[in-house]
Amino acid sequence: METAIKAPRGTRDVLGDESWKWAHVLDVCRDVARDFGYSEVLLPIFEHTELFCRGIGDATDVVEKEMYTFIDKGDRSITLRPELTASMARSYLEHDMRRAPQPVKLWSAGPMFRYERPQKGRYRQFWQTDFEILGVQDPMADLETIDTSMEIYRRLGLTNLQVLINSVGCPKCRPAYRDALKRFIESGPGGLEALCETCRGRFDRNPLRILDCKKLACKEITEGAPAILDSLCDECAAHFEDVTRGLERIGADARLDKRLVRGLDYYTKTAFEILAGELGSQNAVCGGGRYDNLAEAIGGPSVPGVGFASGIERIVITLEGQGVFLGDKPHVDVYVVTASNGLALEAAALAHELRASGIAADTDYAGRGMKAQMKQAAASGAAFVCIIGEDEAASGTVSVKNMSDGEQRSIARNEAASKLALWREERNR
Ligand code: ATP
Ligand code: MG
User: Fold this and answer.
1) Do residues 247 and 286 share a domain?
2) Average pLDDT value for the chain
3) Residue 263 pLDDT
4) Residue 415: domain span
5) Looking at ligand 1, which atom is closest to the CA of residue 315?
6) Same domain flag for 305 and 338
7) Does the CB atom of residue 174 touch ligand 1 within 6 A?
8) Which of 166, 257, 352, 399 is most exposed by smallest CB count within 10 Å?
């Protein structure tokens, strides 16, 4: 027998027991976006490959190893988006949002694609929510993006998060640091050869990324390396000072992490990450920072920007790990039961009327007996069961059972919707 086709490696079906939690997370993102003045943009899931090569950078893991790239039937190189920042900047430029009052604050959410080694919290298709502030250099915008992400987690009820922050300088001050770092590594005990193979490759192309290597040997080599913070130019140092002072002022518990880097020229100044202990080695729920030279890298004029992206799977895993109560799984208010199959049309009509009056209702279509229907009703989580028997049908009434106390009463059929709406309200009070 042929084996049934399964979902591709690194993808997963988010089923009903879990998908409502996602909806809740996305609702909170939408609320926070509104409260902070962001407008939502819906962007394409695929873009020209070049956007990511230029907008993320050829020397990054994402572009070198993780992209889903293919040639389409029109002979174009297309890539499934691995992140949203480059698309956000492209959209800003394409729609000439420079002409609007600055800053322009955009947010979005959806699936991203990266060819990675799948494990808990790491998938090949995963969801991100992404918030960007474009068009201003003000350090208070950096502060606001960190605050925005923390506000999402606060409203979700997440605790025990650690904000890590650093500055990666700018093209004025970074080259000197890059040289100092390379000299430090070269003059270390094992020299260049002691680095892992990936980092040896990074040494010339993107040496800052060596600080980010998860391999123990590389971590040890860079342990006492000079910190980029000590080489910042006056402008970058003042910017960092303003952001950290702001974080203190709003009571955000942020820790300096000298190793936190984004080693590309258009990433500038602030870099931050938010970690959750519950996630094990995939512990970042959020990554963000400033990218004042990104717009130019993708062929536009100079447009500063700052923002963050947060992984929805990792948020949900952390919520579950912390046992955060999100309320009950959504369920219908009313389940309609009939005493005999001959009354199926009555049940369908009542369910229709209830739904049309804003009362969530469900009924049986499997021809179950009344006892089995009652079981279905209990499993549905409905607070009330409407029972239609021959007598009820003949007298234009419905028997309503309150599932929390078992009490049953008879009401006029034409008052069912209004009565049930009232009882539901009393119950939720
Ligand atoms: P990591 O170091 O864990 O690979 P990253 O630096 O590649 O993270 P970013 O590109 O900054 O991650 O993406 C922002 C957020 O998106 C991460 O903090 C994480 O929550 C989420 N994320 C990134 N890659 C994945 C993935 N493959 N599966 C699930 N979530 C992911
Ligand atoms: Mg990654």
Assistant:
1) yes
2) 94
3) 57
4) 334-421
5) 20
6) no
7) no
8) 352
Its pTM stands at: 0.94
**Are residues 317 and 340 located together in one domain of the fold?**
no
Instruction: Answer yes or no: do 243 and 351 share one domain.
Output: no
- 145 vs 222: CA distance, rounded Å: 30
Q: Whose CA is nearest to atom 11 of ligand 1?
A: 287
Angle, CA 384 vertex, CA 380 and CA 390 arms, to 5°: 105
Whether ligand 1 lies within 6 angstroms of the CB of 313 is answered as: yes
**Which residue minimizes the CA distance to atom 22 of ligand 1?**
311
| Per-residue pLDDT, 134 | 98
Query: Is the residue at 9 inside a domain?
Result: no
Ligand nearest to the CA of residue 287, numbered in listed order: 1
Say if ligand 1 is within 6 A of residue 275 CB: no
CA 222-223-224 angle, to 5 degrees, is 95
Same domain for 251 and 383: no
CA–CA gap between residue 294 and residue 288 (Å, rounded): 14
61: pLDDT strictly greater than 90: no
Q: How far, in Å, is the centroid of ligand 1 from the Cα of 311?
A: 6
139-150: average pLDDT: 98
The predicted-structure confidence for 178-205, as pLDDT tens digits, reads as follows 999 999 999 888 888 888 998 998 888 8
Which ligand has an atom closest to residue 81 CA? 1
79: CATH: 3.30.930.10
The answer, yes or no, to whether any atom of ligand 1 lies below 6 A from the CB of 359, is no
* Cα 127 to Cα 311: distance, rounded to the nearest angstrom: 6
Cα(358) to centroid(ligand 1), Å: 40
In a domain, residue 136? The reply is yes
Token digits of residue 29: 């993102």
Contact in structure between 136 and 102 (CB atoms under 8 Å)? yes
Structure tokens at 97: 């949002």
* Co-location of 159 and 299 in the same domain: yes
Confidence of residue 264 (pLDDT cuts 50, 70, 90): low
